[in-house]
Design a protein that fits this description.
Largest sheet: 8 strands, antiparallel
Shape: globular
Number of strands: 39
Strand order of the largest sheet: 4-26-29-38-31-32-33-34
Mean pLDDT: 94
Low-confidence stretches: 264-270, 276-281
Length: 535
């Protein structure tokens, strides 16, 4: 029986995919930017259903993201398998002011393990100031790091931890803007140079060139762009940054990043966007860039096409592999003494200021300095929004008595843009719904008569509308406030923000609002129920 699947196959904030097959198992890595632990690692048996199994860097002392700006940090990882080891490479994008690391803006990190989920080795650093590394081993056994802009080769040691030669430019791309996400693939008589071009927004695409010599010259494919969304009203946009993979049956596929806009794209005169074209308002990628999958077919002339040149699939025939479906992670009762792999801290966590054991069955977060609009904020704990519509709820025990103390739910994009729904103290015990839509907090709604004891907090998301509710028993709910047209909680929502690459996450937080206190906020559980909707 033929099965089908819908894109994306990795839903929520899973951008810049790289996949490797080892036997009958498939492993994916994705960018995590300023979030920690770093570099998400997922596993699949059927190429469509994925389970998150770990992270490549889990010790914050080995990767200090405490001062990393929004949408900087870990970019575009690549996973490969060689000589019995998994090799993960990625870019550490530092702050543009160059105040650390000798004014270098970008460094490449490499970690190794004999187990896909880790633990991985301590990071090794390859001092190449560019982005988007990937690993290639030639027929003669020599190892290279492939890196942008365009396709460049950097000779590296056999263990992939040292640069051993100078950078060698081999193909600049087709001439479109932002030639990045580079991969080299050896197939038949040719080396194929695969690039993302056109920028990561609307008009993103995949182009390819080939050569019989690794070092070129390369000719561009007559079928370029191999992947680009040309329908401005389609439910899948921003498609690019792809990596090809051969499945266990010998069939070929490409994993690529994509975005699901909350609204249809309105383009001048109804024409499709050109690479780098500024779109008019109307498309908001709230959940962030995700991972899609489409088939690849090799042609008689030695080139290949993706999805027969039709662009990204909404629905597609699944790989001919035994289906293995993993349960969705929907609820955490905080009963374990270790944090579930789905949780992400914003930047560096602060050990000693959160605990799963001080009050068993609860996630305890101690208030401390640093509010959500500050980079220094610690222990904001989030999970990915997997759908454009969902409900999230938590139960909180918190006893604020000083002005500024706050704990609760947050729908968080960055220090510049978020919504927070918190139990707080401002002259008295209150609930506040506060938004930050562009580097400034605004009080939207307030509940002044809040009972002592535990309180349930809920957010109901329907596309761009977010409704916040509270309860004293988890059964009877009262509305605190509604946010409509939350276009600031997405990549496109604040045009003057220099880098917005992550999408919105939802979770829990606590801080002291600047009053200097340290009191516990105890979260009994966190539950997420997504709803797959037609766009």
């Amino acid at each position: 029986m033929t099965r089908t699947y819908k894109n994306p196959v990795q839903r929520g904030f899973f951008p810049d995919p790289s996949v490797v097959r080892v036997g009958d198992d498939y492993y994916m890595v994705n960018s995590t930017f300023q979030y920690f632990p770093a570099i998400a690692i997922s596993h699949s048996k059927d190429m469509v259903h994925w389970e998150l199994i770990g992270h490549a860097i889990t010790d914050p002392d080995e990767l200090d993201l405490s001062d990393i700006r929004d949408s900087h940090g870990i970019w575009a990882p690549d996973i490969s398998y060689s000589n019995g080891r998994f090799i993960i490479m990625a870019t550490l994008r530092l702050n543009a002011d160059g105040k650390r690391d000798n004014n270098v803006m970008r460094r490449q990190v490499v970690v190794l393990s004999d187990r896909p989920e880790g633990p991985y080795s301590k990071p090794s650093w390859l001092e190449v100031d560019s982005i988007d590394p990937s690993h290639f081993v030639d027929d003669d056994g020599k190892h290279y790091m492939v890196i942008s802009p365009g396709i460049n080769l950097v000779p590296i040691s056999d263990d992939c931890t040292r640069v051993t030669g100078d950078l060698i430019p081999v193909w600049p791309g087709t001439g479109e803007r932002c030639p990045e996400g580079p991969h080299i693939l050896r197939h038949g008589d040719y080396y194929y140079a695969i690039l993302a071009e056109g920028g990561t927004g609307y008009g993103h695409g995949i182009n390819v060139g080939r050569s019989k010599n690794l070092f070129g010259p390369y000719e561009a494919s007559p079928y370029n762009p191999l992947m680009r969304q040309l329908d401005p009203n389609a439910p899948i946009q921003r498609t690019g940054h792809g990596k090809l993979i051969e499945d266990a049956n010998g069939d070929w596929w490409v994993y690529y990043l994509m975005g699901r806009p909350n609204r249809g794209i309105e383009v001048a005169n109804g024409k499709a966007p050109k690479p780098g074209e500024i779109r008019v308002p109307g498309a908001y990628t709230t959940v962030g860039r995700e991972t899609g999958l489409d088939p690849v077919r090799w042609l008689d002339d030695g080139w290949f096409v993706i999805n027969e040149g039709k662009g990204p699939s909404n629905e597609q025939t699944a790989p001919d592999l035994p289906e293995v479906v993993y349960p969705k992670w929907q609820r955490d009762d905080f009963d374990s003494d270790t944090l579930d792999v789905h949780w992400q801290f914003v930047r560096r966590p602060a050990p000693g200021n959160y605990s799963l054991t001080e009050r068993p069955g609860h996630m305890r977060i101690w208030t401390q300095d640093g509010q959500l609009f500050e980079i220094r904020a610690k222990n904001t704990l989030l999970r990915r929004e997997e759908e454009l519509s969902y409900t999230a709820v938590t139960k909180l025990s918190f006893d604020p008595t000083r002005d500024g103390e706050q704990a609760g739910l947050t729908c968080y994009y960055s220090t510049a843009t978020y919504a927070r729904f918190s139990l707080c103290f401002e002259g008295k015990r209150k609930l506040q719904l506060v938004i930050n839509r562009n580097h400034g907090e605004e009080l939207i709604a307030e509940v002044n008569q809040v009972k002592d004891g535990p309180i349930w907090l809920k957010v109901e998301v329907d596309r761009l509308t977010r409704r916040f509710l509270y309860s004293y028993d988890g059964e009877d709910w009262s509305e605190a406030g509604v946010l409509k047209d939350c276009i600031y909680l997405c990549d496109e929502g604040v045009p003057d923000d220099p880098k917005r690459h992550t999408g919105t996450l939802v979770g829990i937080y606590a801080n002291n609002g600047g009053c200097g206190s340290r009191i516990p906020a105890d979260f009994d559980f966190f539950e997420f129920q997504g709803r797959d909707i037609n766009i």
